[in-house]
Structures are given as C-alpha cells and as structure tokens.
C-alpha cells in the first residue's frame, strides 16, 4: 500500500476514500500500518510473520 491509499495517520484528517478515512476511528486504531523505511518494514515483517508464511516478492 502506498501512503496516498492509506490516508493521513489521523483518520479525522484523512481524505475521503482512503482506508483510514473510511475504516479507522482513532489514531491508535487507524486500520492500517505503513513502515517508514525498508529497514523498518523488514524488522516489522520478521516480527509478525515466519519466513514460511511469506510469498516471494518480485518487481
């Protein structure tokens, strides 16, 4: 997901049609997360998923 699709972190500030505007209620429960860097993403993915649960990614 990209940041435009997710919307502003605060759902009250997110544009209509974004995930956070449509589905989130508060900043703490904002329906979707986006890592701030590739390094953070790798760390967060490893925390939540086992290697066997991941699909190969190609660009």
List the helices and strands and how they pair.
Layout: H1 3-6, H2 19-23, H3 38-48
Q: Can you put this structure into words, describing what you see?
A:
The protein has 3 helices and no strands. It has one domain (3-53): 2-Layer Sandwich (Alpha-Beta Plaits), CATH 3.30.70. The mean pLDDT is 91. The chain has helices at 3-6, 19-23, 38-48. It is an all-alpha fold and 59 residues long.
Task: Give a brief description.
With 59 residues, the protein is an all-alpha fold.
Number of self-contained structural domains: 1
Assign a percent range to the helix content.
Answer: 25-40%
SSE sequence, one letter per element: HHH
How far apart are the first and last residues' alpha carbons, in Å? 14 Å
Query: What is the CATH architecture term?
Result: 2-Layer Sandwich
Poorly predicted residue ranges: none
Rg computed from alpha carbons, rounded to a whole number of angstroms: 13 Å
CATH superfamily: Nucleoside diphosphate kinase-like domain
Share of β-strand residues: under 5%
Overall structural class, as computed from helix and strand content, comes to mainly alpha
Specify the number of helices. 3
